[in-house]
From TrEMBL:
This is Pyridoxal phosphate homeostasis protein. Residues 29-253 form the Alanine racemase N-terminal domain. It comes from the Bacteria. PANTHER family: PROLINE SYNTHETASE CO-TRANSCRIBED BACTERIAL HOMOLOG PROTEIN (PTHR10146), PYRIDOXAL PHOSPHATE HOMEOSTASIS PROTEIN (PTHR10146:SF14). Its cofactor is pyridoxal 5'-phosphate. Keywords: Pyridoxal phosphate. GO terms for molecular function: pyridoxal phosphate binding. The modification N6-(pyridoxal phosphate)lysine is found at K58. The keyword Nucleotide-binding does not apply.
Length: 274
């Protein structure tokens, strides 16, 4: 039996990762993260090739993204649509650089996502699915999507409640420009590894259950879970995509409440929530 129950979170590093200012820094950080991915895989007998590393470049300036590109990154994750769209527009010269939008989307921004993104990981309503599909059809494009699930039970987190996901999935096949790949979650942000792990187990079990009843042609094998502070635990529980920002690019200058605004916070202006 592999011993995984003791893998700690690394949330104690949060906000402390040094800024990556050169292509060598980025190469080294990417290599370190890949090594951590490989050892987590080894603990549970998984092939490291079954885990995709999605570097998350949110808040970082274009210059850092260009260094990441030089270091070999071809898909970058961003959680705010407007910011991602601006970066895409100004980096058109890097024709093979693709974009994954990993944050909550308001219906009125679906048109932007349909224009430039190749992946959207935070689908959580039929309204957004409908808007994305309509704009994608108009653009003659399609999009890989993940359904975001709230596995922590925190009222502040986006995502569908686990019990609502099966019914939601059944309604997605009509949106033919959306290729539903799997599920995404943000775990509880806690140093208590067992509570974090429980979120990941919940997502995997939900995916396994959904695979039994998934609409024809929908594969639903992807599990996007884990970030700088907890991706090893996520991999031990079956993550196929890990979204890693700080451990690659360095700490962000603003507190996380800025990037993960709570959906119930009336103080948060629209321009900040998206
Ligand atoms: C910022 C972000 C991440 C990455 O977090 P890090 O702590 O920088 O690794 C992962 N997922 C989502 C949805 C994010 O917004």
């Amino acid at each position: 039996m592999p011993m995984t129950s003791e893998t700690p979170t690394r949330h104690d590093q949060h906000g402390l990762y040094p800024e990556a200012g050169t292509v060598e820094d980025l190469r080294r950080n990417l290599a370190t993260v890949q090594e951590r991915i490989a050892s987590a895989c080894q603990r549970v007998g998984r092939d490291p090739a079954s885990v995709r590393l999605l570097p998350v470049s949110k808040t970082k300036p274009q210059a850092s993204l260009r260094l990441a590109y030089a270091a070999g990154c071809r898909l970058l994750g961003e959680n705010k649509v407007q910011e991602a769209f601006g970066k895409w527009e100004s980096m058109q010269d890097l024709a093979d650089l693709r974009w994954s939008v990993i944050g909550h989307l308001q219906t009125n921004k679906a048109r932007l996502v349909a224009r430039f993104a190749s992946e959207f990981q935070a689908l959580d309503s039929l309204r957004v699915a409908e808007a994305l599909d309509r704009h994608l059809q108009a653009e003659g494009r399609s999009l890989d999507v993940f359904v975001q699930v709230n596995t922590s039970g925190e009222a502040s987190k986006y995502g569908l409640n686990p019990e609502d996901v099966p019914g939601f999935i059944q309604q997605l096949p009509v949106f033919s420009a959306l290729r539903v790949r799997g599920l995404m979650t943000l775990a509880l942000f806690s140093a208590e590894a067992e509570r974090v792990r429980r979120c990941f187990i919940l997502l995997r079990e939900l995916r396994d259950q959904l695979q039994q009843s998934a609409p024809a042609g929908m594969e639903l094998d992807a599990l996007s879970m884990g970030m700088s502070g907890d991706f090893e635990i996520a991999i031990e529980e079956g993550a196929t995509v890990v979204r890693v920002g700080q451990a690659i690019f360095g700490a962000r200058p603003l507190p996380d409440s800025y990037y993960w605004p709570t959906r119930s916070d009336p103080q948060t202006p629209e321009s900040v929530t998206d």
